[in-house]
Design a protein that fits this description.
This is Olfactory receptor. The protein has a single domain, classed as Rhopdopsin 7-helix transmembrane proteins (Up-down Bundle). Helix 2 packs across helix 11, helix 3 packs antiparallel against helix 6 and helix 10 runs antiparallel to helix 11. The longest helix is centred in the middle third of the chain and has 34 residues. Helix content is about 75%, strand content about 0%. With about 300 residues, the protein is mainly alpha-helical.
Length: about 300
């Protein structure tokens, strides 16, 4: 049986945010503006780092990768949402929905791994500065980045395959603004208990392990900073971590709330709006945070002006 034949040919219906016609164009304008801001902000970071040789360091190499993740993540979701708001056609094919879900989960997993690699970079820079070049060179960064993208792409494969085998019967309305795993499981008419087992297996690898590596890195970083005698030295050392730490807190705070809780606590309407924090505002805030809290980026921006 082909994937498309599991239910009606129109695939899924994405319910979105509002059924009120008058709000559709307003939402279209808001999301279009946000999309342009996110693309421009992250492209600015990429171009600034690319054009300034003194920024060709491991930390900024990781930052370029983070910006690419943000661009890919938002481009996976917002163009389709904008199309639905503009044309009022809210259908998406089964394969298109599965693909969007897989890309979303893959990029989320990649960001978990990449943020852990960035935390390790800050740990080596502050705790082992004399060995920084030996431990964190550009070749090593390339390996870390490749591993993040590779394993991030593979991580949700099991879930994607299982979702592709689910039956959705008559109800194919997804109460969300894109194809996410939890809303799709809510409308499945077959047993989804296997996803709970898979979550217990994949969760520690995809989310908990990178989180623990990040946490341990910052424990050592804070300990090293506290040993610095001068307040100025402490501030200077900590300032190199504030941008990354802020991004980590925002990223983990939003995504853990969305997924690391009992299924019984899943509230479609609340989750739909809260997802905006992760889907839209995290990619928008990342370049702003690095621009405001990173001295090198600030200097380059001022020089460019």
């Amino acid at each position: 049986m082909k994937l498309e034949e599991k239910f009606n040919a129109s695939g899924f219906v994405i319910r979105g945010f509002s059924e009120i016609p008058e709000l559709q164009m307003l939402l279209f304008g808001i999301f279009l503006l946000l999309y342009i801001m996110i693309i421009c902000g992250n492209l600015t970071i990429i171009v600034l780092i690319w054009k300034n040789v003194h920024l060709h360091t491991p930390m900024y190499f990781f930052l370029v990768n983070l910006s690419f993740i943000d661009i890919a993540s938002i481009s996976n979701i917002l163009p389709k949402l904008l199309s639905m708001l503009c044309t009022k056609i809210k259908t998406i094919s089964f394969i298109g929905c599965i693909t969007q879900m897989h890309v979303f989960l893959s990029l989320s997993a990649t960001e978990f791994f990449l943020l852990a690699a960035m935390a390790y970079d800050r740990y080596v820079a502050i705790c082992h500065p004399l060995h920084y070049v030996a431990l964190i060179g550009l070749k090593q960064c390339a390996r870390f980045s490749f591993a993040s993208w590779f394993w991030g792409g593979l991580a949700p494969t099991g879930q994607t395959v299982l979702v592709s085998k689910l039956y959705f019967c008559i109800n194919n309305n997804i109460n969300h603004f894109f194809c996410d795993l939890n809303p799709m499981l809510q409308i499945a008419c077959t047993d989804t208990s296997v996803f709970n087992i898979l979550s217990y297996i994949e969760g520690p690898v995809i989310a908990i392990a990178p989180f623990m590596l990040t946490l341990i890195s910052y424990v050592f970083i804070i300990n090293a900073i506290l040993k610095i005698k001068s307040t100025r030295g402490q501030h200077k050392a900590f300032s190199t971590c504030t941008a990354h730490l802020t991004c980590v807190i925002i990223f983990y705070g939003t995504i853990l709330f969305m997924y690391m809780r009992p299924k019984s606590k899943f509230l479609p309407k609340l989750d739909k709006y809260f997802s905006l924090l992760y889907i839209v505002f995290v990619p928008m805030l990342n370049p702003i945070i690095y621009s405001l809290k990173n001295e090198d980026i600030r200097k380059v921006l001022i020089k460019t002006k």
